[in-house]
């Protein structure tokens, strides 16, 4: 299903979502992470704040809806953003790591995987990762398809 097809199907249930579609794919393990969102196991994600600034992109907004895509840009599900915060990497909580639903859901696992990911992404932009690097934390709930 295309993002537009899924959006139109959800719009029949929730006409207030409007016509503007925001669709995105997870940066690594796109299919695995999209499946975790679809199953309800993954209810949060994190990204590097500096990349939003560099690309002049607005931060995610509470109450908005996003289409989650797989690695082939097919729509997997729609989520509603329920919380957005910006914290230094070293202040991300075990609770947030658990909500990301990855690996053993521990903070140690989250830190290991995300330090490597952020280091690589920031390096591509000519920036350096540190323990104080600002991280955008998003929480969301799956709203479509309905279970």
Q: Helicity range of the residues?
A: 25-40%
Q: Approximately how much beta-strand content do the residues carry?
A: 25-35%
Q: Could you say which overall geometry the principal axes of the C-alpha atoms support?
A: globular
Strand order of the largest sheet: 1-3-4-5-2
**Structural class by helix and strand composition:** alpha+beta
Strand count, sense and barrel status of the largest sheet are: 5 strands, mixed
Protein described:
- The radius of gyration is 15 Å and the shape is globular.
- It has helices spanning 3-13, 30-39, 49-54, 94-100, 107-124, and strands spanning 23-25, 44-48, 65-69, 75-88, 134-144.
- A 5-stranded mixed sheet has the order 1-3-4-5-2.
- The longest helix has 18 residues, at 107-124.
- With 147 residues, it is α+β, with helices and mostly antiparallel strands.
- 35% of the residues lie in helices and 26% in strands.
Describe, in short, the structure shown.
This protein has five helices and five strands, in the order αβαβαββααβ. With 147 residues, it is α+β, with helices and mostly antiparallel strands.
Question: SSE layout and pairings?
Answer:
Blueprint lengths: L2 H11 L9 E3 L4 H10 L4 E5 H6 L10 E5 L5 E14 L5 H7 L6 H18 L9 E11 L3
